[in-house]
Amino acid sequence: MIEEIRDLTTRAGAMETFLVRPDRHGPHPVVFLLMDAPGIREELYDMARRLCSVGYYVVLPNLYYRAGRDTKYGPDVTTKGSPEQARMRAVRTKMSIPPVMQDFADMLAFVDSQPEAKAGMVGTHGYCMSGPYSLAAAARYPDRVAAAASFYGTWLVSENQESPHLNLGRARGELYIACAEHDDLAPLPMVAELKELFDKSGNSGELEMYSEVHHGFAFPQRWCYDKAAAERHWERLIALYRRRLG
Predict the structure, then answer these.
(1) Whose CA is closest to 144, among 120, 127, 161?
(2) Is the Cα dihedral 207, 131, 242, 210 positive or negative?
(3) Chain mean position to CA 35
(4) Residue 52 CA: distances (Å) to CA of 7, 32, 47, 191
(5) How many secondary structure helices (H) and strands (E) does the chain include?
(6) Does the structural domain 2-245 have CATH classification 3.40.50.1820?
(7) Is the pTM of the predicted complex or chain greater than 0.85?
(8) d(CA 22, CA 198)
(9) pLDDT, tens digit (0-9, with 9 covering 90-100), for 126-156
(10) pLDDT averages per 10-residue partition of the chain, 246 residues
(11) Phi and psi for 59 in degrees, rounded to 5?
(12) What share of the chain is helix, strand, coil (3-state, %, to 5)?
């Protein structure tokens, strides 16, 4: 595989982005991997490489780029009360959906200029804070997003502008929403409300509850990592992309 870290030009500045693609038989379908709150790290690079290994051109942007270059955090970023977590949260709490949708448009323009990237429809999936971003992209760009997934997405029903629950019916691509049974950032009553709205939307996809696991279960370096659930998440994601992107 071929990988690089590159600054993508957006309307807000230079967005550091990890790109990885197979070294043969291109062009390849494009998928966007949108980071969780702890931010860009080797663990996410490895997840991008796994998707590349089954045939995708993977784009992993640092969505915190508006706050500057110093937006990669140490391993204790997930430790409650740590200085690194406080530093991350100072950036995270200023995030909102509309600027990320602007970034998504700029990323689409970038991949459209790359000969190694297959033209046309793309896929996107997000973890934690980026679950809403991925679903919002499917609604904002229905002519481009063929598949969108959210894994333990936070506050999928909210008062935020472009909250995913408001626009489920606008997405023409297939949606997959995975929720963890134990998740303070997506409580079970919220999931039940979202499920009702999802069923009414008519989307061909699925909202699936992962029983007996916690928020963050797909990340191998997290205390709550659950191998069986993590592998199921890969199975569901790759199958979704195979169906919709090839």
Answers:
(1) 120
(2) negative
(3) 6
(4) 20, 11, 9, 31
(5) 6, 8
(6) yes
(7) yes
(8) 35
(9) 999 999 999 999 999 999 999 999 999 999 9
(10) 96 97 96 96 97 98 95 91 93 93 98 97 97 96 98 90 86 96 94 93 95 96 96 98 96
(11) -115, 120
(12) 40, 25, 35
Range list of β-strands (E), the chain: 2-10, 13-21, 30-34, 57-61, 122-127, 145-151, 174-182, 206-214
Phi and psi angles of residue 206, each rounded to the nearest 5 degrees, phi first: -155, 145
Residue type, 3: E
228: enclosing H helix or E strand: helix 227-245
The owner of tokens 């991997």 is 33
CB proximity list for 194: less than 8 A, separation 6 or greater: 156, 157, 164, 165, 177, 207
Burial 18-39 (b: 16+ CB within 10 A, else e): bbbbbeeebebbbbbbbbbbbb
CB-based burial label for 46 (10 Å; 0-12, 13-18, 19+)? exposed
